[in-house]
## 1
Amino acid sequence: MSKIAMTTPLVEMDGDEMTRVLWQMIKDELIIPYVDLKTEYYDLGLVKRNETNDQVTVDSANATLKYKVAVKCATITPNAARMDEYNLKEMWKSPNGTIRAILDGTVFRAPIVVKGIEPYVKNWKKPITIARHAYGDLYKNVEMKIPAAGKAEIVYTDKDGKESRALIHEFDGPGIIQGQHNINASIESFARSCFNFGLDTKQDVWFASKDTISKKYDHTFKDIFQEIYDNEYKTRFEQAGIEYFYTLIDDAVARVVKSDGGFIWALKNYDGDVMSDMIATAFGSLAMMTSVLVSPEGVYEYEAAHGTVQRHYYKHLKGEETSTNSIATIFAWTGALNKRGELDGNNALSEFAKKLEKASLMTIESGKMTKDLALITTLKDVTVLNSQDFIKEIRKTLDTLL
Ligand code: NAD
């Protein structure tokens, strides 16, 4: 069998610990035997980031702007313990933060739905994708403790020095205040990313906030979404047979729980933070969540939503057997290969990616899985496989499909 050719490279961002081990196994077993893989390789492992003063992260993001599609392995975000463990020159910033800032994107997280791993909400049949606005609000707030009675105000001073003021509160005694901001341009690119992803995946887009209480702040989000939808997307959504609608966040929560899934739920920064963990847990497993960063210009970076699975890595280093779930990392690869195929008009590549996804799910549905899934599955008589054997089983299934 001849290998599938590629015309344009993918940007490949290698990473750390157990996911770095899985990365190589996935390439060796599931991709290179079938695809004449072309990638521009960047090693985002912590050793290399430290060696290059994190320049490699910036370079990989710039390459992604150029080639439009990247696949990323999970990476360590350094903390105090990592400073010693890796003898770091500096506590380098989160690579995901750096990449997101360069691509100006929105992160979409979606669970991989498979028979045998059942959501806690029985009527959820299709994935629910969370789109979280990743700028501002609580995450860039300014807070103050008010020690005693006094007046707190918000003040805006324009370029000519003219002030506008609003009273926050007349305090009788101690209290607290908080200032938040967002930027119209950031909300606009968030809205466009959500609408583009809706068109891309043929799913409805819901946006929810608390505009009834926050009549200026949240209402601005609502207005910007509506204006961009009406002016730029309405016709295309109608042609694609999908919908956009806004609803109050309380109403959205009720609708989400009663739905059967299959839509994109766009949320402000804090709401998205909380709801994406709720959705991941309710669908069954963090190891089954995918994540894709989409820029308003149509640049895509695919990854697993989980981290580097540090505990398994230390076992692996000691020569002990691991049973680490590679599904979300495989789906990062298939997401990227499928998108590369779409953008290049390379149907064979997209078809291959879809078959690899199918083979992964069929393997689990046949009762062969890693330990994390065996602990929560509703299937009977399952076989628990180690990291390597699970990938080899998927390869066997894939061969039956090709
Ligand atoms: P983690 O996602 O690696 O692990 C969290 C828990 O889920 C652990 O109990 C782990 O055993 C389990 N788990 C996660 N993925 C699994 C898989 N594929 N198979 C089986 N079990 C799995 O998160 P953590 O332990 O908080 O962080 C470890 C490292 O990962 C940290 O250095 C952190 O900075 C990094 N991290 C990176 C990313 C990213 O690159 N996107 C995201 C989160 C954390």
## 2
Amino acid sequence: MLASRSFSRLATRSISTRNPHAALARSESHSGEDVLFHLGLSSADDLSQFRDVKYFLTGGSRGRIRSLANKVATTLPSHVTGLPFGASPTPIGSTDRYEMYKVGPVLMANHNMGIPTTAILLHEVTKLLSLAGADDPAFIRLGTSGGIGVTPGTVVVSTQAVNGMIEPSYDLPILGKMVKRDTTLHEGLAAEIIEANGGAVPLERGMTMATDCFYEGQGRLDGAICDYDEAGKMEFLNRAHAAGVRNIEMEATVFAAFTKQLGIRSAVCCVTLLDRLKGDQHPHSHEEIVEWDERPGDMILQYLLKSEAAA
Ligand code: R2B
Ligand code: URA
């Protein structure tokens, strides 16, 4: 009962950008097009193929996104993917900065590491989907992270993102002023993902901290520079844990804030590769890490199957 209601779409709503100067881009560009520079696409291309996008999945590594695209192609039914039997997805646009794939209603691209590269992708994919007239697509980040007091291999489905100051805010200097944006994620989408998982992948709910540095920003003692000690590191990690943070990565704040500002439903699902309360380096075997790496994608495949079955 709850399942069919939560997976149904109540209203159609085109994704939209929020920029009163949109026409300026075309008038300034050499050819009168709005160029999505880092995707290698433009408003002059036939973007109608993106109109049916219902899900945008992103994660850091291009290899992980490529393998996810193949899994989506082989797991979703052919009436959803529209792919002939045995066909593999091929990248769309330029592959210099990002690798982007589309399988039926699922668009996928890697965002690389950190907030700036993720922000560029979010701007351009959102413009792309808006130009194409896509209807209310959900944005989901699938990634890896360091857990805090969480069993390694657990996927944290984020309630909210916090920055490296443990504040629920994405802070971006704009025109020389610090602009702070809300980082709350969409409750309903997270609930649908968790329900579709049905206990198959171990998961926890919790806040996710996004930092600007893998080493010092995450309180590691093993970087090339470190001006604090073990006690300082543990005080920081314990304080984050007490505030409700269950994992640390490098993109959740911009992902949450960007989507929240444009009214896009979004979720962040990151597997924890180690418990930072126990150390800084990955103590687990390569095979374990490879298996855990697949978990967020496998969870989302279950969500896609269920969501499409209810469509
Ligand atoms: C998780 O893993 C990467 C750093 O190793 C970074 O992109 C992140 O958020
Ligand atoms: N990604 C991070 O940002 N931190 C970790 O500890 C592991 C993966």
